[in-house]
């Protein structure tokens, strides 16, 4: 397809601007002005609409294809959530920060407060900040809260390390490093969880925090989690819960009950908000009461009379992690999702997410190597090692699936599984969809034996075949030349 | 059974699946969670229908004051949004997709992001852009960390005229690192250049400025760029994309890294988000850029295509050695920005920028004609300016809010001694009639 810039014709317009009803201003000095216009596209509204409509048709999406992308919880996004977010489009965030402004924003502030309460209940925390803008941003915020906690106790210099399992999301060590910590990585034991003995050896009083996902990225719930928390706490290290996999456990277990002190939640995963082709997400952070004094500002608090206020002058706070109140529109969608499903609905979400993952796991087990063969939670991780014997890699199976109309599972993650294929069906898929997917996965396994070349050639039905990624990295052509 | 109608299984299907797994109940699947650790309570309310949910959301929205006339900015701006932006970004193929890790079935998102990066490069006059960051404040922080990596130095000098929110985000990002952040107090709404000169030494990694700044002043930082480069540091400029329709671009100024908030480009105010942050830089810094970058390449048949590139900078490959921890960005908001810019177009953005300035200059002249009211800065302004008022700005703003006018941002909470200062924003959406009403209401308020 042509780029929008290649369709540009000087003088064309996509929208008519309002006419001026004021006199023209005096010209600015030339030293302040740009020499030539920014080279934006010049297209008609119809050109614009066709271009982006046709571009959209070159995407797989949840609304068009099964999207079992492990670790990403690509569930269906209810349409009423979009309608709900649109209701809040006109509200300027500065209004709440003006003198007398909070009285005009009781709806939005109250909703954020209520959302925080519900998330605190689900995660077993005492208070939640909705400011973090995505999961990784929540991780960074959470680790900064932990840093502030240690600093307030005079331990800033002493606490140098953050411990993560080798199966963790890459954002965990990256977020801890951004927040100023060195990383200690603990290997996974043959039983699929962080090796308990090696963890004990790794722990010392210089560890500030232990970051874990539970269930972990293998989809397994760690039965030793309470023991791990107790060991961490005995070294005055705090427990951080990466909520990326929260979809598995709502109403079943609360991170706060098993020793976690800080939690982030991915609203765009567990709470039904769309992923937007890479964002926006939203990553609220919950904390136990010891960490409340350090929460970001402005903090929304409820007065005795039920009105909502903004606390903006707490000297202990880590400050701001975003300019305003977080990705508010995303939180509106998550809030609508939560009140619509309610208590029983959210419990059912986790139950059926776990049911679906185990169903796919059992059905595919005869065809793909399952390195950690046990009851999984919301996702299961296979290895394409059997297929590798025929020269077929996980990526080849992924591309074969694309030809069959399925978005591939996550491949090559977690890194501890060779040729990993990580499948997360979510609760919103029907048995019929999963059965059809299972058939295609079996076909891929059989084709790997009979005709591996067919898998190497895939995909053949897309607008493009496999891309030369080395050329992209070498040439670094990241913007269309003038 | 189905409390969530988004869980589609019938009881019979659930039984079939349980049999296939070899368990009797769904509950058995939760056996790996030790019984002692199981949740004892969940106090959420019962669920409701779609209709009831939407009614509830309407009621919540209705608890906010509607229909205010906005003269407030402070980083988020009330601009027009062409109807096509909502419709096209509302295509579910865009908004229900995820990160384009599988390029063959994600060319829509990938090409759009390449076009977005192109728009940002052309707007800023710089060579490379990423595929978006979270917001304007975090983009300032990411740019500062990028400069720390590039220079290997450990001090960031920040003009106090930069948005106080962005400065707070920057300080939060850097608080647990061995990095010094030095702020320069503003001088009549402008950068205090003498103080900057005194601070510029070999420890400074970058100087962060904003144009137009929080007071609304427009400055030429061309000479500053030379001075900063002479000291071996980088110049980071936070810019307002609408203003770039007419104002000197960061590239022309000599700025090394340009950042800003893209809300003004087709994203609704939405109580502060989601918007997007952008970052653009000179090409030599590309390997130090944070976040996802889309690159052009060819497929096996030589056909042009787009792919996420230079991923070795990113957290999912490099883990703790990544250039940033960012994973999810604000892609859909960046797409809205691209559609907005492509709709308004090359000439249209310049006209839109001029319209903003015309309206603001009219408002400035009318407001400063009120006895006792003056304009703080002698410098040029774009669509924001700072008034010096004969009374406390906080009290005036409170009074005008009750009259349905959000008069501006009082500076007293952000700058000591600025209690009588008010930053007024006038976008193209404000009519002459609304401006005249504001002038009249302010006059009355000052008489009381």
In short:
The complex is a heterodimer of chains A (482) and B (448). Chain A is α/β, with parallel strands linked by helices and 482 residues long.
Structural topology:
The complex is a heterodimer of chains A (482) and B (448).
Chain A: H1 45-56, H2 79-86, H3 106-123, E1 127-129, H4 135-152, E2 161-165, H5 171-178, E3 182-186, H6 196-202, E4 207-212, H7 225-234, E5 238-243, E6 262-265, H8 267-270, E7 285-287, E8 299-302, E9 308-311, H9 328-364, E10 380-383, H10 385-388, H11 394-403, E11 410-411, E12 420-423, H12 431-450, H13 452-457, H14 469-475
Parallel strand pairs in A: 2-3, 2-4, 4-5, 5-6
Antiparallel strand pairs in A: 1-7, 6-7, 8-9, 10-12, 11-12
Chain B: H1 11-21, H2 50-62, E1 69-70, H3 83-89, H4 92-95, H5 107-124, E2 128-129, H6 136-151, E3 155-159, H7 164-174, E4 180-184, H8 193-199, E5 204-211, H9 222-230, E6 234-239, H10 250-253, E7 257-261, E8 277-281, E9 293-298, E10 304-309, H11 315-318, H12 331-368, E11 374-375, E12 384-388, H13 393-402, E13 405-406, E14 409-410, E15 421-425, H14 432-447
Parallel strand pairs in B: 1-13, 3-4, 3-5, 5-6, 6-7
Antiparallel strand pairs in B: 2-8, 7-8, 9-10, 11-12, 12-15, 14-15
Helix pairs in contact in B: 3-12, 5-12, 6-7, 12-14
Number of strands of chain A: 12
Strand order of the largest sheet of chain B: 2-8-7-6-5-3-4
| Helix run count of chain B | 14
Determine and state the CATH class of the largest domain in chain A.
Answer: Alpha Beta
Largest interface: A-B, 213 and 217 residues
Instruction: Specify the CATH architecture of the largest domain in chain A.
Output: 3-Layer(aba) Sandwich
Overall number of structural domains of chain B? 2
Radius of gyration of chain A: 25 Å
CATH topology of the largest domain in chain B: the name is Aspartate Aminotransferase, domain 2
CATH superfamily of the largest domain in chain A: Type I PLP-dependent aspartate aminotransferase-like (Major domain)
SSE string of chain A: HHHEHEHEHEHEEHEEEHEHHEEHHH
Mean pLDDT of chain B: 97
How many H/I helices of chain A?
14
């Amino acid at each position: 397809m042509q780029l929008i810039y290649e369709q540009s014709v000087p003088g064309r317009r996509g929208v008519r601007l309002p006419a001026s009803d004021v006199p023209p201003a005096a010209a600015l000095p030339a030293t302040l002005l740009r020499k030539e216009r920014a080279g934006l596209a010049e297209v008609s509204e119809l050109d614009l609409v066709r271009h982006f409509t046709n571009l959209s048709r070159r995407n797989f999406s949840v609304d068009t294809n099964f999207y079992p992308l492990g670790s990403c919880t690509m569930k269906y996004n209810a349409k009423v959530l979009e309608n709900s977010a649109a209701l809040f489009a006109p509200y300027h965030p500065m209004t709440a920060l003006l003198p007398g402004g909070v009285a005009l924003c009781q709806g939005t502030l109250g909703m954020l407060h209520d959302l925080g309460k519900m998330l605190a209940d689900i995660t077993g925390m005492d208070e939640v900040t909705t400011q973090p803008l995505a999961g990784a941003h929540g991780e960074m915020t959470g680790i900064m809260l932990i840093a502030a906690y240690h600093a307030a106790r005079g331990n800033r210099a002493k606490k140098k390390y953050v411990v993560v399992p080798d199966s963790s999301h890459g954002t965990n060590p990256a977020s801890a490093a951004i927040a100023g910590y060195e990383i200690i990585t603990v290997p996974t034991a043959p039983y699929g969880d962080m090796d308990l003995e090696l963890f004990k050896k790794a722990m010392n009083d210089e560890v500030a925090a232990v970051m874990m996902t539970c269930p972990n990225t293998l989809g397994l719930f760690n039965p030793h989690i309470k023991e791990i928390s107790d060991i961490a706490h005995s070294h005055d290290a705090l427990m951080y819960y990466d909520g990326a996999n929260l979809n598995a456990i709502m109403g079943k277990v609360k991170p706060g009950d098993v020793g976690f002190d800080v939690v982030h939640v991915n609203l765009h995963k567990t709470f039904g908000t769309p992923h937007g082709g890479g964002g926006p997400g939203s990553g609220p952070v919950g904390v136990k009461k010891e960490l409340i004094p350090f929460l970001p500002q402005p903090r929304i608090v409820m007065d005795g009379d039920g009105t909502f206020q903004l606390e903006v002058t707490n000297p202990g706070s880590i400050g701001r992690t975003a300019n305003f109140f977080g990705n508010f529109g995303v939180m509106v969608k998550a809030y609508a999702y939560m009140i619509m499903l309610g208590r029983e609905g959210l419990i059912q979400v986790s139950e059926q997410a776990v049911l679906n993952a185990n169903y796919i796991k059992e059905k595919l087990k005869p065809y793909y190597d399952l390195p950690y063969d046990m009851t999984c939670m919301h996702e299961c991780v296979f290895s394409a090692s059997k297929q590798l014997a025929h020269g077929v890699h996980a990526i080849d199976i992924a591309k074969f699936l694309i030809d069959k109309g399925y978005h591939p599972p996550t491949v090559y993650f977690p890194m501890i599984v060779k040729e990993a294929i990580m499948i997360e069906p979510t609760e919103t898929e029907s048995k019929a969809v999963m059965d059809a997917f299972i058939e295609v996965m079996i076909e891929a396994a059989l084709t790997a034996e009979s005709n591996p070349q067919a898998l190497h050639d895939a995909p053949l039905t897309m607008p493009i075949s496999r891309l030369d990624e080395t050329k992209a990295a070498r040439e670094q052509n990241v913007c269309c030349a003038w | 059974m189905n409390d969530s109608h988004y869980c589609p299984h019938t009881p019979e299907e659930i039984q079939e699946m349980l049999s296939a797994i070899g368990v009797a109940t769904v509950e058995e699947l939760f056996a790996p969670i030790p019984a002692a650790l199981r949740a004892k309570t969940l106090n959420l309310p019962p669920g409701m229908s779609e209709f009831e949910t939407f009614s509830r959301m309407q009621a919540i929205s209705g608890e906010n004051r509607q229909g205010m006339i906005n003269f407030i900015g402070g980083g988020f701006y009330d601009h027009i949004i062409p109807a096509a932006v909502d419709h096209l970004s509302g295509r579910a193929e865009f908004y229900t997709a995820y990160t384009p890790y599988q390029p063959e079935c994600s060319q829509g998102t990938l090409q759009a992001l390449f076009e977005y990066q192109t728009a940002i490069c052309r707007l800023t006059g710089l060579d490379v852009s990423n595929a978006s960051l979270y917001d304007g404040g975090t983009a300032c922080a990411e740019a500062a960390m990028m400069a720390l990596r590039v220079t290997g130095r450990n001090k960031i000098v920040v003009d106090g005229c930069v948005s106080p929110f962005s400065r707070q985000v920057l300080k939060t990002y850097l608080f647990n690192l061995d990095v010094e952040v030095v702020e320069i107090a503003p001088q009549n709404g402008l950068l205090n250049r003498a103080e900057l000169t005194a601070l510029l030494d070999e420890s400074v990694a970058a100087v962060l400025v904003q144009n137009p700044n929080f007071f609304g002043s427009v400055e030429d930082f061309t000479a500053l760029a030379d001075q900063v480069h002479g000291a071996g540091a980088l110049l980071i400029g936070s810019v307002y994309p609408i203003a770039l329709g007419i104002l000197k671009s960061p590239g022309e100024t000599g700025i090394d890294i340009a950042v800003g908030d893209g809300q003004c480009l087709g994203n609704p105010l939405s109580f502060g988000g989601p918007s997007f942050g952008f970052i653009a830089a000179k090409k030599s810094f590309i390997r130090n850029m944070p976040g996802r970058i889309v690159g052009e390449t060819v497929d096996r048949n030589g056909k042009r295509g787009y792919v996420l590139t230079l991923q070795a900078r990113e957290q999912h490959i490099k883990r703790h050695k990544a250039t940033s921890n960012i994973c999810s960005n604000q892609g859909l908001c960046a797409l809205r920005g691209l559609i907005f810019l492509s709709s308004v177009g090359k000439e249209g953005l310049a006209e839109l920028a001029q319209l903003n300035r015309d309206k603001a200059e009219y408002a400035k002249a009318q407001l400063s004609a009120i006895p006792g009211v003056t304009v703080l800065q002698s410098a040029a302004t774009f669509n924001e300016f700072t008034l010096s008022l004969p009374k406390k700005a906080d009290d005036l703003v409170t009074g005008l809010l009750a009259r349905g006018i959000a008069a501006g941002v009082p500076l007293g909470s952000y700058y000591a001694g600025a209690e009588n200062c008010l930053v007024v924003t006038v976008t193209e959406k404000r009519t002459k009639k609304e401006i005249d009403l504001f002038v009249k209401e302010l006059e009355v308020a000052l008489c009381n």
